[in-house]
Design a protein that fits this description.
- The chain has 810 residues and is α+β, with helices and mostly antiparallel strands.
- It has 21 helices and 32 strands.
- 55% of the residues are buried.
């Protein structure tokens, strides 16, 4: 089939359901859903400096909290002397782990059903662990008083390598767990081992590769913080915090603090980036609550950059052995892998209960294969806990990196162009919904046109000719390709929960008498543009302009229950809830309109914004007319209550599966090993598009994340467990100088089960970009005979590899 024909089918051939649910979608228009490329409603307050973040919050009589952290990675606490700190004239409270233990507050549950110390009582298990806290009149006095606390440690050997941690002679990190005699966290497997082994046994070609996805950090612009205000008179707690999941946090605070859940209000104000880092509950949040309970005053805690990098949730940290089997002519047959996962000192992974390894099971990628199998061993080490979905859906970035590197290694073995190999093995449209060999169901996909569009934008053939010319001159130019399928939008609740809380989301919509509306959603924005996107969804369904729709989020007293924003859940779950609740309102409005026009419901037609009598468009009422009637005098149809509002709890039928094709072009300086990303082409298919400008912003951010991970980002540790990435001087993050002008494109394959056909896009670019960059660099270094070098591809690490001494990062 020709490229042009495939492209036409991609952009014009939708399912019947998609046509019904996206009536006004115009595929080649920049306004795919009604208002399309509109400016973000939230931006005026941000560009004027009027955003309100945690550290902006000032309450009368507010005190400030600072946390004393362990300077060593592993050691028993012999004694803690706080007398000098308590004598400080501005100090109001000093709390140790022993004091919390007396109140039953020394430990708290993690999102993976482990227990984590709020303040260390027996020993410290990672550098930066919380040991004590001070509450003082101002933040400077609180910080100063930390220096007055004298802690004596019995230092123990630190275990920072997962292989060493599994050695029977290694010190046991989690000796708080009864009967624990090793550092094993859990084992997990997926796929069919016997079937996979049989396919490998008869394969013509088997390629094996060890690879590391090093520990990285989301490093949001705003660090974590909280302001706790306990009112002893009515027994209520209000907590303003940097959380991506306010409702889930409230439930856990009720469990930990023993307060009635209805007396706890969690408010998540404007958040300066999250990227998964603000999903967990951190000890600092609990400390702020305890501080307010004990002082009777509001207490603020805001961490600094070093605290954020060294103690809050990390991402990745996988050591992977991958194998790929194929025929001699390039048909991929099977994939198998073994993974060692470093979970740090506590199992703080944010993933659904039934999926301890997250969604790593999609490591089969976008390819039609016969068998797959994976085993994983998770390990405790003397590092900070975490394992969050850093701009990806629960470990999918690691899975995609594994398969896309294996495919490139196979292409190298077969002497085949990596694009040709991918085209030969991509899933075909007629195979969807497709069940992978590890049991995941992909809802829809049309992969080849997406890859063809990326090739068109890049002018791939011309790039290969340019590369050939440059190699003849001794220049190192590389072209890397990656193709990915994500799995986003967790639930459904029958399969997915976190700590027993089902992964469904609520939405409430109320239309006022004058025809403006308020939508309340349970997800929480961290800069994604929810106030705009969700207003556009509702506007498309009921015809009220987005400017007249207020979106409320981030307040447990003002919004319905839901599991929050991470893993690209917002559009996939809360966006679906917004569309469905708007349809419920429209259905009620139709009944009222039929009475107003004195016709049967069957005789009414809906055009966005108004109802009219079939065959007589002049006889009509607007949604604003209906809203006034719903709240005004006069009778309503029998059985219809006054008002125009509805609520819903949306339980997704399945995950949605956005996909994309990325092409990266790099130049490597043969004298310095410095990598320059010259071009990057990203073609994403996120189903029906709502606001292309917001989509492009999400993609640009994710691509920058991916370049950073591929080329510079790593949280490294020395043998003593000291974190070597505790500042932005040491933990490098890309700036505009390190990235190119992004070239983006799109195809559209609607989700068959999402109410508007959308799939989500917030994290796709972070999933697809690292393997594209690494593949490009390795392509550039083919003259050196290198098949693989582990990330980050810093100049020093690449120089070692180019000179025959490649080193793993951990």
């Amino acid at each position: 089939m020709s490229f042009s024909k495939l492209a036409r089918e991609t952009t014009h051939s939708f399912s019947k359901l998609a046509r019904e649910t996206t009536q006004r979608f115009v595929d080649n228009d920049l306004t795919p859903m009604g208002h399309g490329r509109m400016l973000r409603k939230e931006d005026p307050r941000f560009i004027r400096g009027k955003g309100r973040f945690i550290d902006d919050l000032q309450l009368p009589g507010m005190l400030h909290l600072a946390i004393l952290r362990a300077p060593i990675a592993h050691g028993r606490i012999v004694s803690v002397d706080v007398s000098a700190a308590e004598a400080h004239p501005k100090v109001k409270l000093v709390v140790t782990g022993a004091m919390l233990a007396e109140r039953g507050l020394a430990w708290m549950p993690t999102l993976s059903n482990d227990m984590q110390a709020v303040l260390a009582t027996d020993k410290v298990r990672f550098q930066g662990q919380e040991v004590a806290f001070v509450v003082a009149e101002d933040r400077y006095a609180a910080r100063d008083a930390l220096e007055l606390i004298d802690v004596e440690y019995e230092q123990l050997p630190a275990v920072v390598n997962v292989r060493a941690a599994l050695d029977p002679s290694s010190p046991v990190i989690r000796d708080d767990l009864e009967g624990k005699t090793d550092n094993h966290c859990f084992d997990w497997e997926t796929g069919d081992k016997a079937a996979t082994d049989a396919v490998f046994a008869r394969a013509d070609v088997v390629v094996r590769q060890d690879m590391v996805y090093p520990r990285v950090h989301p490093a949001p612009l705003e660090t974590c913080g909280a302001v706790a205000d306990y009112d002893a008179v009515d027994g209520t707690l209000t907590l303003w915090s940097t959380t991506q999941a306010p409702h889930a946090h409230r439930t856990l605070y009720a469990v930990v603090a023993g307060l009635p859940e209805h007396n706890i209000r969690v408010i998540s104000p404007d958040i300066g980036g999250g990227f998964g880092n603000k999903v967990p509950i951190y000890p600092g949040y609990i400390c702020a609550i305890v501080g307010s309970l004990l002082t009777g005053k509001p207490v603020k805690w805001t961490e600094d950059r070093a605290e954020n990098l060294t103690s809050t949730a990390f991402a990745r940290d996988y050591i992977m052995h991958g194998e790929i089997a194929a025929t001699r002519d390039g048909k991929i047959l099977a994939i198998r892998t073994n993974v060692l996962a470093d979970h740090g000192a506590f199992n703080g992974v944010a993933a659904p209960t039934k999926y301890p390894a997250g969604f790593f099971g999609v490591f089969t990628g976008s390819y039609d294969i016969q068998a797959a199998y994976c085993t994983m061993t998770a390990v405790f080490t003397n590092k900070a806990p975490g394992g969050v979905a850093y701009s990806c859906s629960f470990r999918i970035t690691e899975a995609v990196y594994l398969v896309e590197r294996l495919v490139d290694c196979l292409a190298d073995e077969l002497k085949m162009d990596p694009v040709e190999l991918r085209l030969k093995n991509l899933l075909r449209p007629e195979q969807f919904p497709y069940t992978t060999k590890t049991g995941w169901v992909y809802d829809s996909g049309n992969y080849e046109p997406t890859l063809r569009e990326a090739l068109r934008i890049a002018d791939y053939a011309a790039l290969r000719r340019e590369q050939e010319d440059k190699r003849a001159r001794g220049e190192l130019m590389g072209i890397g390709v990656s193709f990915f399928t994500e799995a986003v939008g967790a639930g459904p609740r029958k399969d997915m929960d976190i700590l027993g809380l089902g992964m469904a989301d609520g939405a409430e919509l109320r239309v006022h008498p004058t025809g403006t509306a308020v939508l309340r959603v349970s997800c929480q924005t961290q800069g994604q543009g929810h106030e705009t996107t969700f207003a556009q969804i509702v506007a498309e369904e009921i015809g009220i302009p987005p400017a007249d729709i207020k979106v409320v989020h981030g307040d447990t007293d003002q919004t319905p229950f839901g599991l929050g924003t991470y893993g690209s859940r917002s559009t996939a779950v809360s966006g679906a809830a917004a569309a469905l609740v708007a349809r419920k309102v429209r259905d009620k409005a139709r009944l009222i309109a039929s009475a107003m026009l004195e016709v049967s419901v069957a005789d009414l037609q809906w055009d966005k914004g108004y109802f009219h009598v079939a065959g007589d468009p002049a006889k009509s009422v607007t949604i604003q007319d209906v809203a006034m009637r719903a709240h005004g005098a006069g009778d309503l149809p029998e059985g219809i209550e006054g008002g125009l509002e509805a609520q819903i709890c949306y339980n997704p039928e399945n995950l949605t599966n956005p996909h994309g094709a990325y092409i990266c072009v790099v130049d490597v300086d043969p004298g310095t090993a410095v990598v320059t990303v010259r071009r990057f082409i990203a073609v994403d298919d996120c189903g029906v598009r709502i606001n292309p400008m917001i989509i492009e912003g999400q993609v640009h951010g994710g691509l920058t994340d991916g370049v950073g991970m591929a080329l510079m980002e790593i949280l490294a540790f020395d043998e003593g467990g000291n974190c070597l990435g505790g500042s932005l001087m040491d933990y490098l993050i890309p700036t505009a100088l390190e990235v190119p002008d992004w070239e983006t494109g799109f195809t559209v394959t609607p989700s068959p089960h999402h109410p508007i056909g959308a799939k989500g896009v917030g994290e796709s670019a972070t999933v697809g970009s690292p393997p594209a960059v690494v593949n490009a660099v390795l392509d550039a270094l083919k003259p050196y005979g290198l098949r693989h070098v582990d990330m980050p591809l810093t100049p020093s690490r690449l120089w070692e590899a180019m000179n025959g001494n490649p080193q793993p990062p951990i």
